[in-house]
Design goal:
Layout lengths: L4 E7 L7 H6 L4 E5 L6 H8 L5 E6 L9 H15 L3 E4 L8 H16 L4 E5 L8 H11 L4 E6 L2 H4 L6 H8 L3 E6 L21 H11 L5 E3 L11 H17 L5
Parallel strand pairs: 1-2, 1-8, 2-3, 3-4, 4-5, 5-6, 6-7, 7-8
């Protein structure tokens, strides 16, 4: 199955690389951090030269904000205007009672669903730390527009004795977005290498997603010390190396 390749590129004001350099690598889409200085018109203007498109946007998601559903509904409207299928968010309940967190997420689902945009919750504690946690949260929220953003490396970072392929199999019915990222496999280990140098079997993970009918883009989230955003040439070479590996294993064209 053919999938577009996307790149988590920072914000419009502080992109990790010029958009034209990202496009030159053969990447089709961007995940963009959305802040108060960002607008749909500004994003569209910035994309014109490169031909890139927005695959997802990343607003903040404080569950204790009583205006959260309205705010994320507004961001879903922005996403829909740009052709993005989902909002990527990190959502944590913290000290909030779980039932209240689930109820708030359900209201967010109503708000984003009005624009046919998914809420995709990152592989983070304490609501989507691993597949079992994801399944419990999704069952409790029980909303068609609320799902998971599966991160192939965060599974190892936040958990011990796990396998990303098996975790993906368990959670795949709820996956609405994917961050592809490599890891050396250590618990709380910030060593996220260039793809192919770590332990993630991207081909096997991709097979799980394809068999489930997932058709969305694969978004490269490249973080950690080796991806230096202060050196554009070095970063571009590493981004290209990651993209090349995904093509070699057949994850993207």
């Amino acid at each position: 199955m053919s999938h577009d390749l996307s790149y988590r590129a920072g914000s419009l004001q502080r992109p990790h690389l010029p958009f034209t350099r990202i496009a030159d690598i053969g990447i089709q889409g961007l995940e963009l951090i959305w802040n108060d200085q960002t607008s749909v018109d500004a994003v569209e203007a910035a994309l014109q030269v490169s031909g890139l498109r927005i695959t997802s946007i990343n607003p903040s998601c404080p569950l204790d904000d009583d205006n959260l559903a309205r705010n994320l509904g507004r961001h879903a409207e922005y996403a829909a205007a740009l052709g993005a299928a989902y909002l990527f968010v990190s959502a944590k309940a913290g000290d909030m009672p779980r039932q209240e967190a689930y109820d708030r997420l359900r209201r967010v689902g109503d708000a984003v669903g009005e624009h046919q945009v998914y809420l995709a919750m990152e592989t983070h504690p304490d609501l989507c730390q691993n597949a079992d946690n994801m399944l419990a949260t999704m069952a409790a929220v029980d909303h068609p527009w609320v799902g998971v953003n599966y991160d192939t490396a965060n599974i190892y970072f936040y958990n011990k004795d796990v396998d990303t392929v098996q975790e993906a199999k368990k959670a795949v019915a709820h996956i609405r977005g994917v961050h592809v990222k490599d890891t050396m496999g250590g618990f709380e280990d910030w060593n996220f290498p260039v793809f192919g140098e770590g332990i993630v079997d991207f081909a096997a993970v991709g097979e799980v997603f394809d068999q489930s009918g997932f058709t969305g883009p694969y978004c490269m989230e490249l973080e950690g010390g080796i991806f230096n955003t202060d050196d554009a040439d070095e970063l571009a070479a590493k981004v290209k190396g990651c993209a090349d590996h995904l093509r070699q294993v057949g994850l993207v064209d």
